[in-house]
């Protein structure tokens, strides 16, 4: 078996201290590590994509991914497994546990799943949300908050120092705190 | 892509020969040339267009190809009747769209500061911009259809004002179920007098590209 090189984890923050997450990428913040304690994870333009945020507040470990399509239909993408909702949630939880998070502390917030072009038969968003929720249920992770659906894109910001999530709908001038 | 019965699901990198790239570029040029002529007649202005470029990129890079990730733009998405694997996306900056609308109407001028989502435009303006989108898509596709001797009729287009990444989400979602790559054929247009920049972005599936190339090579003995 030849090893496939994956580089879909975002390590590098930009000069504003933001980890920008493109589609099918993920980021983990381990706040016990002092270098990553002040970072934000940011997604600009979350349309029909869904961003599951899973974290352990007690041990200060959090992860977020940017999911594109609902179902892998048993197809493995070797380079970008995080594009599929079902793989992404499972891998994110595995990774968090590897970083030392406790399964019973994990909670989840999901954001996204909008329908940008309203007259097209573009139901990807709703299906993404459904599959992510299913996977969370399977893994026994509590969903504490969600901001899904609608017809507008979102900008989402996860702050690692107080574990808050802020969401801004396109067209709204301000962020609204979610949790 | 030379193998006729190639399976594209194996996710290997797609490589086009320079001839194939040229054919696709020329398709893009012909399509956009026709579309721009129509727009030029409608607006009665000179329009500059760039040469068409072909890009084969990992699906997540598509938004970065078309502009900065936090840019808010108008997107007009056209689908094709009966063909579910071709999309034509037109992208215009917000201010350009308002300028076009204001240059075409005498009454009900729009104020760019008050427009935050597409629904903030009045019905008349939405109808103008959708009609422009429809005309461009129609001319683009009918030129392609003539050349390829196939039927390509665009559906009623859809309008949204949003972040460029959010707009492209639903297109990449369509194509990247199987593949990690997308092919885009894009042309940029520019109207100096209205300070308008726009992008015509034609996104076919890999199977469609293959079909197009086969038709062309059979028809013109390339």
Which helices and strands appear, and what pairs or packs with what?
The complex is a heterodimer of chains A (179) and B (222).
Chain A: E1 18-20, E2 26-30, E3 40-46, E4 50-56, E5 61-65, H1 85-98, E6 107-112, H2 124-138, E7 142-148, E8 154-159, E9 164-169, E10 176-177
Helix pairs in contact in A: 1-2
Chain B: H1 18-43, E1 48-49, E2 53-58, H2 62-66, E3 72-80, E4 83-93, H3 94-104, H4 123-148, E5 158-163, H5 164-175, E6 181-191, E7 196-204, H6 206-220
Antiparallel strand pairs in B: 1-6, 2-6, 3-4, 3-5, 4-7, 6-7
Helix pairs in contact in B: 1-4
Protein described:
The complex is a heterodimer of chains A (179) and B (222). With 179 residues, chain A is of the alpha+beta class. Chain A has a single domain (18-172), classed as 60s Ribosomal Protein L30, Chain: A, CATH 3.30.1330. Chain A contains 2 helices and 10 strands, in the order E-E-E-E-E-H-E-H-E-E-E-E. Chain A has helices spanning 85-98, 124-138; strands at 18-20, 26-30, 40-46, 50-56, 61-65, 107-112, 142-148, 154-159, 164-169, 176-177. In chain A, strands 1-3-8-9-10 form a 5-stranded mixed beta sheet, with no helix packed on it. Chain A has a 5-stranded mixed beta sheet with strand order 2-5-4-6-7, with helices on one face. With 222 residues, chain B is α+β, with helices and mostly antiparallel strands. Chain B has one domain: Chemotaxis protein chec, CATH 3.40.1550. In chain B, strands 1, 2, 3, 4, 5, 6 and 7 form a 7-stranded antiparallel beta sheet that branches. In chain B, helix 1 (18-43) crosses helix 4 (123-148). Chain B is globular. Classes of the chains: A alpha+beta (179), B alpha+beta (222). Chain A binds chain B through residues 20, 22-25, 43-49, 68-69, 73, 75, 77-80, 83, 114, 116-120, 122, 124-125, 152-155, 170-172, and chain B through 9, 11, 58-61, 63-64, 69-70, 72, 75, 77, 79, 116-117, 120, 156, 158-170, 172-174, 176-178, 180.
């Amino acid at each position: 078996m030849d090893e496939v090189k994956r580089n879909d984890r975002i390590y590098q923050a930009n000069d504003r201290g933001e980890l920008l997450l493109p589609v099918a990428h993920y980021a983990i913040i381990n706040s016990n590590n002092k270098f990553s304690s002040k970072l934000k994870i940011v997604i600009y333009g979350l349309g029909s994509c869904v961003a599951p945020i899973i974290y352990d507040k007690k041990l200060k470990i959090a992860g977020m991914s940017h999911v594109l399509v609902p179902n892998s239909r048993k197809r493995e993408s070797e380079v970008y497994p995080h594009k599929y909702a079902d793989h992404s949630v499972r891998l994110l939880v595995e990774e968090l546990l590897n970083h030392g998070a406790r399964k019973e502390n994990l909670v989840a917030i999901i954001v996204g799943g909008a329908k940008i072009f309203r007259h097209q038969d573009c139901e990807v968003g709703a299906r993404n949300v459904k599959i992510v929720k299913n996977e969370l249920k399977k893994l026994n992770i509590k969903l504490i908050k969600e901001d899904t659906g609608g017809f507008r894109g979102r900008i989402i910001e996860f702050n690692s120092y107080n574990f808050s999530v802020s969401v801004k709908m396109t067209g709204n001038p301000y962020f609204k705190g979610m949790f | 892509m030379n193998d006729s019965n190639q399976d594209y699901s194996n996710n290997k990198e797609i490589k086009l020969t320079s001839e194939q790239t040229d054919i696709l570029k020329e398709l893009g040029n012909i399509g956009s040339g026709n579309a721009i002529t129509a727009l030029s007649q409608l607006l009665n202005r000179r329009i500059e267009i760039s040469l068409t470029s072909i890009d084969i990129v990992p699906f997540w890079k598509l938004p970065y190809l078309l502009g900065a990730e936090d840019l808010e733009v108008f997107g007009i998405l056209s689908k094709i009747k009966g063909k579910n694997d071709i999309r034509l996306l037109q992208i215009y900056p917000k201010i350009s769209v308002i300028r076009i609308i204001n240059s075409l109407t005498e009454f009900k001028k729009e104020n760019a500061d008050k427009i935050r989502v597409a629904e903030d435009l009045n019905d008349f303006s939405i109808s103008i911009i959708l009609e422009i989108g429809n005309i461009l898509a129609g001319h683009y596709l009918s030129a392609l259809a003539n050349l390829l001797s196939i039927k390509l009729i665009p559906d009623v287009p859809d309008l949204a004002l949003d972040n460029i990444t959010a707009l492209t989400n639903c297109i990449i979602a369509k194509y990247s179920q199987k593949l990690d790559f997308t092919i885009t054929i894009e042309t940029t247009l520019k109207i100096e007098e209205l300070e308008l920049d726009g992008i015509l972005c034609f996104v076919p599936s890999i199977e469609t590209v293959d079909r197009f190339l086969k038709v062309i090579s059979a028809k013109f003995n390339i």
